């Protein structure tokens, strides 16, 4: 667990999962118009399923300030077939569903969550911390690049809508943590 100013980064309690799902849906709803109604409903269900899924090991990490959930994500260690549409296995920790309350954006919450994940991955011996995103998520891509993430196209795969390329990024953990520390 780490604390940045009054922001607390910690593992979520099981009772906080429902709130994390709601926050994730709120954070990702800005992309709703990019998808068909059916796809969006499936995406929301996927968020719920991932937060409550027990058959894959996931760190459920949240950011809380003054008792209010402001951000959350899932952190997976290297596992087989983390993504249904990706044939390759990602050999390092992977962030999924990074979400920040839309009213709390621009306060360093995503960076603090990523830093926590980078520290956990590095302490586990990983050379990289990975994540996947799409070009639709422009602000997220800008943040990842600013923090030192680089493209890893060998782990790209087609999105569920068959039009979107889900792009892989990874943060080299040797130099990446210094970039993250400077960003906080």
From TrEMBL:
| Taxonomic path | Bacteria, Bacillati, Bacillota, Bacilli, Bacillales
Tell me where in this chain the N-acetyltransferase domain is found: 7-172
Q: Name one Pfam family in it.
A: Acetyltransf_1
Under SUPFAM superfamilies, the record lists:
Acyl-CoA N-acyltransferases (Nat) (SSF55729)
Give the protein's recorded name: GCN5-like N-acetyltransferase
Residue ranges annotated as coiled coil are none
PROSITE patterns for this protein: GNAT
Keyword Transferase appears in the UniProt entry: yes
**Organism for this UniProt entry:** Paenibacillus mucilaginosus 3016
